Amino acid sequence: MASLSLKHIFKVYDGGVKAVNDFCMDIEDKEFIVFVGPSGCGKSTTLRMIAGLEEITAGELRIDDEIVNDYEPKDRNIAMVFQNYALYPHMSVYENMAFSLRTAHMPNEYIHDKVMEAAAILGITEYLDRKPKALSGGQRQRVALGRAIVRNPKVFLLDEPLSNLDAKLRSAMRAEISRLHEKLGTTFIYVTHDQVEAMTMGSRIVVMKDGFVQQIDTPINLYKYPGNMFVAGFIGTPQMNFFEGTVTKTGDEVRFALDCGTNVDMKYIQADKVPVKYMDGKHRIVFGIRPDDVRVKNSTNYDDGSWSPARAIVSVVEVLGGETLLYANLNLDDPDCESSTIIIKADPDTVARRGDVIDIEISRRKFHVFDKETEKSIRKRIPDENIINASVRDGRLTFEGQIFTLPPAIECSASENAEISMPISALTIGGGSGKATVQWTEKIGDKTLYFLKVGEVTLFSLEDGEAKYSVGDEVDFDIDFTMISSEALGIAPLQFTNTLDGSFSKEKNKETKLYDFYMNIGEARLVPTATVCEKIFACKGNKIFHTPLEYIVDARAITTAPHTEDRENVLTGSVLEIHDYTSAKYATVDVYGQKLIAAYDGAVGDTVDVTIPVEAMTIKDKTIDIIIV
Ligand code: ADP
């Protein structure tokens, strides 16, 4: 039984292949985690780093709160099961399973009990005397599992264990491994390139591509709320249908105009998670709809306004028994046009033939929208941003009948109808000069997403805990002006993330004759903690002294005070600019030629002492862009 924590894990192979980038995840005890993605995406490398078979280039791996980066594989108390079983051919099944316990000098009686217990769990008791070559693939894989079970590992790591088995056996073994996980009550991490395996076995799935984690979530959430086109296309069979096009909002009506000629029309309230800025008929979008969320029109179909009509011409009909898959084309004039092919999961009784033109219906609830350029979802479960069209005059911001007084930090000239965006965390309810009506609430994990009707548009707020307000309630809302941005008005959000160029150096201490180490930012030296030093040396060794670094720190972790005297671990700077947000004040400080933002209530020209807690800093290798600490 174990929990795991992977913090900013990187793997750079000799020769510079960056196989894993910034892998971050907390795994709870007893979870069944699946790493899935196409070949070469870094799944096995990550698993092998957890096992200790591959060195971790940078980052921190903890098992049960213990940092294990430097532990030998045998000391990590984990067991790994491989695709090719890795059994000893000259040993019996019994001896294969007993092997690791014998090398650990366990007493014979203990070994016997353990082997018999594992064999019973796996149903291989009758094969214990056989050699591996006298077993089928499925039986060999059971032996490989048995060899892991006898060691009572804290974590089971399984690397494509079923890919050598035929389809039927694979699905039987899938169920068996899931049962085994339940029975053992141990943390499992399972690698596969097969999304069906991932969906059926994982309590949470990590989808990877090109060394980057794309999304981590439960199978159902990945299916319902894919964060980008890659995840949307990778999870679910048959694949999601994608169509390029544009969106337009006219009053309360929204139209997705797809390039193939089909329009998907709906009320704004059905599409309100799509930012209004995309609804200009110009932004290129990709409309995504799963085969399950399209249906063939039928006079008995119930429709509460959730279905948009369309027509398609059938090209292929696949009768699978329990369901029928129709491959059709939305472009009636060019039925071979690939970009307008639509797959429909239809009723098993559906009668259709190649060339038939059929009436279909596309769900107005379960559709997906992606930005064509970034391929990211723009109809996310939790929207990233609120975007408003506002006017500015006399230091006041007005939009949709709301009036906010701008803080002194925001200087902009008068303007009409300027686009302003802010992360949804910038909009808080329960105070402030904004007035909204709660239109809908959605519980997401331990948070509540509020849909707020403000004039003609829907804005979002995400608050901790259960819903405190109900549909129809009038609420006050406030805007955190440090987070707003507007290209039209020349407003940028306050940059809370400070990035300072620096280096790492050593100096022989004349008294102790030992080396002291320093983090250098300009002329300032900060003294790293022993843990920071250890992490740096584990990752970079002696190269650290010649590596250009970035020290990254959040403005809210920094403290400032009027300058007193030069001290170790304190940077001295002069205030270049004051950002007065009324409720909070920040300063841009020049520290040895670099700019830094920190909370400070004073005046331009002040000399200030800046204290950055070393443990709050992220240290980045600038040359290969990896996080060292
Ligand atoms: P997956 O398990 O998802 O198929 P891997 O983790 O095996 O992917 O590989 C990720 C990337 O790292 C690939 O580009 C692969 O070629 C590369 N790679 C794997 N092992 C090594 C190695 N020993 N040396 C150099 N590159 C490697």
Structural class: alpha+beta
CATH arch. level architecture of the largest domain: 3-Layer(aba) Sandwich
Assign the CATH topology of the largest domain. Rossmann fold
CATH homologous superfamily heading of the largest domain: P-loop containing nucleotide triphosphate hydrolases
* DSSP summary: helix tally: 9
How helix-rich are the residues, as a percent range? 10-25%
Q: Bound compounds, please?
A: adenosine-5'-diphosphate
**Any idea what the radius of gyration is?**
30 Å
Number of strands: 39
CATH C-level name of the largest domain: Alpha Beta
> How many domain modules?
4
Strand content: 35-45%
SSE layout and pairing:
Blueprint: E1 4-12, E2 18-27, E3 32-36, H1 43-51, E4 58-63, E5 66-67, E6 78-81, H2 93-103, H3 108-122, H4 137-149, E7 155-159, H5 167-184, E8 187-192, H6 195-201, E9 204-209, E10 212-217, H7 219-224, H8 229-234, E11 241-250, E12 253-258, E13 263-267, E14 285-289, E15 294-296, E16 307-319, E17 324-329, E18 341-346, E19 357-363, E20 367-371, E21 385-393, E22 396-399, E23 402-405, E24 415-423, E25 427-444, E26 447-454, E27 457-464, E28 474-479, E29 497-508, E30 515-521, E31 524-526, H9 530-540, E32 549-554, E33 559-562, E34 570-580, E35 585-591, E36 594-599, E37 607-611, E38 618-621, E39 626-627
Parallel strand pairs: 3-8, 3-9, 6-7, 7-8
Antiparallel strand pairs: 1-2, 1-4, 4-5, 9-10, 11-12, 11-14, 12-13, 14-20, 15-19, 16-17, 16-19, 17-18, 21-22, 21-24, 22-23, 25-26, 25-28, 26-27, 29-30, 29-32, 30-31, 32-38, 33-37, 34-35, 34-37, 35-36, 38-39
Helix pairs in contact: 2-3, 2-4, 3-4
